[in-house]
Amino acid sequence: MLTEIPENALRNLTQLMTLNLRSNRLRDFPATVFRDLVKLRSFNAGLNKLSTLPGRLFHGLNDLQELYLDNNAIESIPEELFQDLPSLKRLHLHYNKIKTFPGNAFRGTWSLQERAFVGLRTGIFTLLSGNPFYCDCKLRWLKAWLRSKAKYIHSSASSTTCSQPDNLKGKPILQVANEQFTCVDGQWTEWSPWNACSRTCGSGTQVSIRRCTNPPPGRGGEECKGKDIKTKSCNGPDCGASWTAWSEWNECSKTCSSGNEVRTRSCQHSLTGLSSNSCTGSPQETRICTRQPCSVDGVWSSWSRWSSCSVTCSWGTRVRARTCDSPQPQYGGKPCLKEVLQQRSVI
């Protein structure tokens, strides 16, 4: 017994004419699973557990003549589902759970969209019985549709009945008077007076509300549009404000030599604890902090002049020197590297 159909299961079956998936446990179909079945004439998916159908599930099946979707749990009919089936002659949708789509589903009522069957040819056999139709203003079209195709609809018109509202329960749709297909759209009450400010001092908020009860939506009617609450700012007397205690001093901004330390405080309303700008003084203090001296690496001075020759005749040498004092190393700084003296031979 099948529980699912992989999306590629029916690829390239372009000559298939009959597909029978009846009496399985299928819950849904991939949206493009039937796209290659261009010659399909009969499709049976009755007695499964289908609850939803992709809107373009049958797109491109121009030769499809028989479609059996009965005895499932289908709750809604996408308005484009049957619009691309020009050859359809038999449609079985009986014993499902067809509901309102999309708006009234939020109130648990049922109906079909008027455009769900647009494009179907006359001469088809359609079974719709056993669905929990909510006979409100949005289903009035179905009565006209059933009546206009009465001689073509096989054993369905008289057994297609209302389940709601209670006064029409069990009544065939064809016997419901047009004026009984009614909806009551919700209407707003007037806005309430503004309530008291949310704060007894300082800045706050006021609220005004309205209700969708004038009248409330009923029998598949629309909910009220718009918001049911609005707000505005309000200002009470000054709450009074004072500084909090100073924070601890933060770390010095330098790890050696001199830097700065900072501490802060905040201005708050005495009653509400909210921030205020009414305190006198500064929210921040700064002080100098002194750490150990920073290390200084030694740097060579410039070379001295060359000395006189070490002899008055023949070969001798001249010497020059430099010192590590520009500056000299301090506080753990690195000493100068390389030679202190240089010499060269001369005649």
From TrEMBL:
It is a single-pass membrane protein. Its main location: membrane. InterPro entries: Compl_asym_regulator (IPR052065), Cys-rich_flank_reg_C (IPR000483), Leu-rich_rpt (IPR001611), Leu-rich_rpt_typical-subtyp (IPR003591), LRR_dom_sf (IPR032675), TSP1_rpt (IPR000884), TSP1_rpt_sf (IPR036383). The keyword Transmembrane helix applies. SUPFAM superfamilies: L domain-like, TSP-1 type 1 repeat. Keywords: Disulfide bond, Leucine-rich repeat, Membrane, Repeat, Secreted, Signal, Transmembrane, Transmembrane helix. It is found in: Membrane; Secreted. Transmembrane segments: none annotated. GO terms for cellular component: membrane. Residues 131-184 form the LRRCT domain. The keyword Isomerase does not apply. This is Hemicentin-1.
